[in-house]
Design goal:
By secondary structure, the protein is an alpha+beta fold. About 25% of the residues lie in helices and about 35% in strands. A five-stranded mixed sheet has the order 2-3-1-5-4, covered by helices on one side. The protein starts with 5 loop residues before the first strand and ends in a 5-residue tail after the last helix.
Length: about 100
């Protein structure tokens, strides 16, 4: 039985951003601008650090399941439900 406080989150990453920023929900996927170039995993590192800080969890609670070299990524986030995450992000995302 899967733990209730872990979820799979699809993220679309826009690299080369001037600052890290959560933009919007798009087709059940979070769209995020991330600083850095997609070389040597820098964007992935920045993405995990930014999401962890934004959601108030440890970086170790976020794992990239697929898409390490793609703009479309699937993340496993432990210790948080989708409802809790959406509540936190609703304060950030302008509708």
């Amino acid at each position: 039985m899967a733990a209730h406080n872990e979820m799979i989150l699809e993220v679309k990453v826009i690299p080369h951003a001037s600052k890290n920023e959560i933009l919007r929900w798009e087709e059940n996927r979070l769209v995020v601008k991330i600083q850095g170039v997609p070389k040597k995993g820098k964007v992935n590192e920045n993405l995990i650090g930014f999401l962890a800080k934004t959601l108030g969890i440890a970086k170790s609670q976020i794992e990239i399941l697929s898409g390490e070299t793609s703009r479309l990524k699937k993340l496993n986030i432990q210790g948080m439900s989708l409802e809790t995450m959406k509540k936190i992000l609703s304060d950030i995302i302008d509708h």
